[in-house]
């Protein structure tokens, strides 16, 4: 039991450090953590590391006929910058010698077998080892660069596209669909796209589909679920094992917990700050209720009837939070409230499960409640989409790398961590996986169906997003007419995109 608890704790810590940048990108003002918006987490840290000027010259064929491809680092599985074969040797040595790791890494830990418990410190190493071996079989040499995450990454990628000097594989989150719409990415080969549509959960590729073509893939994306603190729910006289299924039930539970808390704890609900951390969370409610952010051409649709209904519901939920918490510009403050057991319910990505267990919180996890006329839907969160630029020097080799990302070996490794869900149906729908990881299996099911990514607006993307975020915050925090507030935001956004 002690090892299991330590194991879960480390997974949560690694998740916070390596996967937490999932709502940065796209130009938002997100400064929190917790699978949210830490720009240093998702793609490897220092925004100044890596040299974009070298990317176009490092690829190509070596004297032995091998093709070297440049891949941008993803922090969740990153092992450094350089030739991956060399990095693996250095990483193994460092892991073996690191006395601060608990549990300590042993030689036998590196002998990973599918279905075997993985020392969480080794996830990135094993991931890269599997990918590297597959590339060696194709006579491909992997070399990584680190361009940071969030705005620094977007700026470097934009400059690389303009200079036609870009790595063979780039990675990002909210900015990636926009790159596809702008014609900057290479569509996946038809046979590859057909396989993905048939065998891979939509959350891994659907947000990167444009005009019938697929332009990107995420090996371990997330979607949001409803989480709750069972102790607080029990104190409110509610069944801690029963999830609310409708918005009406959800609001009733939040009200009951808030009343029981008497100012010591609150019902909570969903983070709705004016940043990408907020859009990714409360955006799921827009999708469920038939609303959204933009049409297929990237033009705003802020003041739809469905959005007015949803934002009105958000205003109600605000009353079940400590004053100012729901729209706090620092999303980390919101998630800290859940970790400190100050709010009972929240909507967040799958990492919340491991982290709650590590903190000793007795938690529940379920699908997000539906509005009266709503349908299941979700927004990808923490999805590091990999894509091949139009100007990549080694496109065929780059696509081999992406194929390796959805291979059974990589997807089984992801399944064996129990923190994220695999996206390959043959792994996720295996009875063993469902039995070992019932909550993550439910998360896998949520990655099917109407799963969307955040859109990129036709023009002035950052400005338009901020117009919407400010309008929602105003609607939540004031008594102004919600429709009028969204009408005003729509007019301002339409002016910006003209």
Descriptive tags:
498 residues, 15 strands, D-Maltodextrin-Binding Protein, domain 2, four-stranded mixed beta sheet, alpha+beta
Topology diagram in text:
Elements lengths: L1 H17 L36 H4 L1 E2 L5 E6 L9 E2 H14 L25 H15 L2 E6 L4 H14 L6 E3 L3 H6 L8 H10 L9 E2 L2 E2 L7 E2 L1 E5 H6 L11 H15 L4 E3 L7 H13 L16 H14 L12 H9 L3 E6 L2 H8 L4 E4 L11 E4 L3 E3 L7 H11 L2 H10 L7 H4 L2 H6 L1 H9 L4 E2 L8 H17 L4 H16 L1
Overview of the molecule:
Residues 1-54 have low confidence and may be disordered. Helix 1 packs across helix 13 and helix 3 (84-97) runs antiparallel to helix 4. The chain is α+β, with helices and mostly antiparallel strands and 498 residues long. It has helices spanning 2-18, 55-58, 84-97, 123-137, 150-163, 176-181, 190-199, 230-235, 247-261, 276-288, 305-318, 331-339, 351-358, 395-405, 408-417, 425-428, 431-436, 438-446, 461-477, 482-497, and strands spanning 60-61, 67-72, 82-83, 140-145, 170-172, 209-210, 213-214, 222-223, 225-229, 266-268, 343-348, 363-366, 378-381, 385-387, 451-452. The longest helix has 17 residues, at 2-18. The chain has 2 domains: 2-221 and 383-452, D-Maltodextrin-Binding Protein, domain 2; 223-381 and 457-497, Periplasmic binding protein-like II (D-Maltodextrin-Binding Protein, domain 2). Helices cover 44% and strands 10% of the residues. A hairpin with a 2-residue loop joins strand 6 (209-210) and strand 7. It contains 20 helices and 15 strands.
């Amino acid at each position: 039991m002690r090892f299991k608890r330590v194991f879960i704790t480390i997974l949560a810590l690694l998740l916070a450090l390596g996967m937490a940048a999932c709502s940065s990108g796209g130009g938002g003002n997100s400064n929190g953590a917790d699978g949210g918006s830490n720009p240093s987490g998702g793609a490897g840290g220092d925004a100044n590391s890596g040299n974009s000027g070298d990317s176009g010259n490092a690829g190509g064929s070596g004297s032995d006929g091998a093709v070297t491809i440049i891949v941008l680092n993803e922090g969740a599985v990153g092992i450094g910058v350089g030739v991956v074969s060399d990095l693996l040797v250095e990483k193994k040595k460092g892991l073996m010698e690191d006395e601060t790791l608990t549990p300590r890494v042993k030689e036998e830990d590196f002998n990973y077998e599918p279905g075997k418990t993985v020392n969480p410190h080794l996830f990135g190493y094993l991931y890269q080892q599997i990918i590297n071996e597959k590339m060696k079989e194709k006579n491909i040499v992997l070399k990584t660069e680190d361009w940071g995450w969030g705005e620094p990454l977007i700026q470097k990628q934009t400059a690389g596209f303009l200079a036609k000097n870009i790595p063979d594989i780039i990675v990002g989150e909210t900015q990636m669909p926009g790159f596809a719409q702008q014609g900057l990415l290479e569509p996946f080969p038809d046979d590859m796209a057909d396989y993905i549509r048939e065998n891979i959960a939509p959350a891994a590729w659907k947000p990167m589909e444009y005009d019938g073509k697929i332009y990107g893939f995420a090996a371990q994306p997330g979607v949001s679920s409803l989480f709750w603190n069972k102790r607080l729910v029990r104190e409110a006289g509610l069944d801690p094992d029963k999830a609310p299924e409708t918005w009406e039930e959800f609001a009733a539970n939040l009200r009951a917990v808030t009343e029981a808390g008497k100012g010591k704890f609150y019902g909570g609900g969903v983070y709705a700050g004016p940043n990408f951390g907020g859009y990714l969370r409360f955006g799921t409610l827009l999708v469920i209720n038939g609303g959204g952010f933009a049409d297929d051409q990237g033009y705003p649709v802020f003041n739809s009837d469905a959005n007015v209904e949803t934002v009105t519901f958000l205003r109600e939920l605000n009353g079940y939070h400590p004053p100012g918490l729901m729209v706090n510009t620092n999303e980390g403050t919101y998630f800290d409230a859940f970790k400190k057991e100050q709010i009972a319910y929240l909507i967040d990505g799958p990492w919340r499960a491991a982290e709650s267990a590590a903190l000793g919180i007795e938690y529940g996890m379920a699908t997000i409640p539906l509005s009266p006329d709503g349908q299941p839907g979700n927004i990808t969160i923490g999805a590091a989409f990999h894509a091949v630029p139009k100007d990549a020097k080694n496109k065929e080799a780059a696509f081999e790398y992406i194929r390796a990302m959805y291979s059974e070996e990589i997807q089984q490794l992801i399944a064996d961590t129990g923190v994220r869900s695999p996206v390959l149906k043959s792994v996720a729908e295996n009875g063993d996986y469902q039995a070992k990881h019932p909550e993550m299996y439910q998360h896998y099911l949520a990655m099917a169906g109407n799963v969307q990514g955040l859109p990129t607006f036709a023009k002035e993307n950052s400005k338009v997003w901020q117009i919407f975020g400010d309008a929602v915050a105003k609607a939540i925090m004031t008594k102004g007419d919600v429709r009028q507030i969204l009408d005003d935001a729509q007019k301002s956004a339409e002016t910006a995109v003209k």
